[in-house]
Design goal:
This is Glycosyltransferase. It holds the Pfam family Glyco_trans_1_4. GO terms for molecular function: glycosyltransferase activity. Keywords: Glycosyltransferase, Transferase. This protein has 2 domains: 17-210 and 389-404, 3-Layer(aba) Sandwich (Rossmann fold), CATH 3.40.50.2000; 230-387, Rossmann fold. 33% of the residues lie in helices and 19% in strands. It has an 8-stranded mixed sheet with strand order 3-4-2-1-5-6-7-8, sandwiched between helices. Strands 11-10-9-12-13-14 form a 6-stranded parallel sheet, sandwiched between helices. It is α/β, with parallel strands linked by helices and 408 residues long. The chain starts with 16 loop residues before the first strand and ends in a 5-residue tail after the last helix. The chain has helices spanning 34-45, 101-111, 113-123, 135-139, 162-165, 167-180, 189-198, 244-257, 292-299, 316-323, 355-372, 377-381, 389-403; strands at residues 17-22, 50-58, 69-73, 76-85, 125-129, 145-149, 183-186, 206-208, 230-235, 261-266, 284-288, 304-307, 328-331, 346-349.
């Protein structure tokens, strides 16, 4: 059989095609991160003529392992093939490559190679993956693979993940993934250009698919100033490359300018591991893990988003804040120039000696503009009009259709 069988479904008025998504988590679960949000939105928005299979881990404890079940998430039904039961719901990183989620999941792909080949090759699926380590395993099954990479950091930059500390292994796996994949997407144009240059024999395979915010969940709402406080928020991991040390110093500098500031942290990281947190502990509200719907509800009473990362892909938290009409003040990243215009949807802070104090001052300026009405939820939201999920995801769905011999 193979991919072609999707074209001739008996009794179908419209040809259908089958796509298998792979990730080591459970899209219905509590894990937070850009990859998890991508997959949740993919499920929510996937076309009616796509038969979707998710291969991952079961967090509920109810699904049979290594068997396909039909599940529902946010009103959409799809097939779910769990390879393991998820017993550790934290976002902590393994203490080495062999203890990482990626290694564990790749090992299960190898262990279940025969079963997966019967399901995927026999069912006529194309595969879509977020981790380069999975590409050669799936390609060895005869499955066409589309690769998507969400983040990239240089070997001289701080990273918490195991591969960040073993960059030479990452380079090797990226090269192999580029060789065996049908298409290879990066999340911003700078990454795409870097990949084309670095892995030039496969330059034609590389393209950009940036991130978005779910527009049915994140929508602009009026600003609220009724409690007299300035509410700043960050949602996500406290990975080293996100520079929590800088973030906490910015909030401390902001407090010196406006004593009525409150800092809201959403995520399961431990800020106490950073000495800089002590100065703002008493004005920090730790909300723990929240899903997208809960974060959207929280943003109704928040004012400004903060980002202090050394590098990112295209940070989804920024897209969500802007879509909700909340400006973001971030350290300068080239890809953010597409959505953050100084004084309009936030500020980008250059990498200068006094960047901590400058970021704090810019947050005060933005807050005053919000109170004056010169920055509105609607004007901030307009900065991401071109980044709608259906438009962006349509690009990768087109690739799958072509792999199945269907019109683009």
């Amino acid at each position: 059989m193979g991919v072609e069988m999707a074209k001739s479904e008996v009794g179908s008025a419209k040809p259908r095609y089958r796509v298998a998504l792979f990730n080591s988590g459970d899209p219905r679960g509590s894990k937070v991160g850009g990859i998890e949000t991508y997959i949740r939105d993919y499920i929510y928005y996937h076309p009616e003529d796509m038969d979707l299979l998710f291969v991952g881990a079961d967090e509920s404890g109810k699904l049979p392992i290594n068997e396909i079940s039909e599940v529902e998430f946010r009103g959409r039904t799809f097939k779910f093939l769990p390879l393991l039961r998820l017993d550790d719901l934290s976002n902590a990183y393994g203490e080495g490559i062999t203890k990482s989620d990626t290694w564990r999941f790749a090992s299960l792909l190898v262990k279940n190679w025969g079963m997966l080949r019967r399901v995927l090759k026999g069912g006529g699926y194309s595969a879509e993956i977020r981790r380069v380590e999975y590409a050669p395993i799936l390609r060895s099954m005869g499955i066409p693979v589309i690769q998507m990479v969400h983040i990239w950091g240089g070997k001289d930059q701080q990273m918490s993940s195991s591969l960040g500390k073993h960059w030479y292994i990452r380079d090797a796996t990226e090269f192999v993934a580029a060789a065996v994949s049908k298409k290879y997407y990066a999340v911003n144009p700078n990454m795409t250009a870097m990949y084309k240059k670095k892995y030039w024999p496969f330059a034609k395979k590389f393209d950009t698919l940036t991130t978005w915010a779910n527009t049915t969940i994140f929508q602009p709402t009026p600003y609220r100033f009724d409690d007299g406080l300035m509410h700043v928020m960050f949602a996500g991991r406290l990975d080293l490359f996100k520079r929590p040390d800088f973030m906490f110093r910015v909030i401390a500098a902001l407090r010196a300018l406006n004593p009525n500031v409150r800092f809201h942290y959403v995520g399961d990281g431990d800020p106490e591991q950073f000495p800089e947190f002590a100065a703002i502990r008493d004005i920090t509200i730790r909300h723990g893990i929240k899903n997208s719907i809960e974060i959207a509800a929280m943003l109704e009473s928040k004012h400004i988003g903060i980002l202090t990362s050394d590098f990112e892909g295209m940070p989804r938290v920024v897209m969500e804040f802007l879509t909700a009409g909340r400006p973001v003040v971030a350290r300068h990243l080239p890809q953010l120039e597409q959505v953050i215009t100084d004084g309009v949807s936030g500020y980008l802070i250059p990498h200068v000696d006094d960047h901590i104090e400058l970021q704090a001052r810019r947050m005060v300026e933005i807050f005053e503009a919000m109170k004056a009405g010169t920055i509105t939820p609607e004007s901030v939201n307009r900065s991401v009009e071109a980044f709608r999920p259906e438009t962006l995801l349509g690009k990768i769905w087109k690739d799958h259709r072509l792999l199945h011999g269907l019109p683009a």
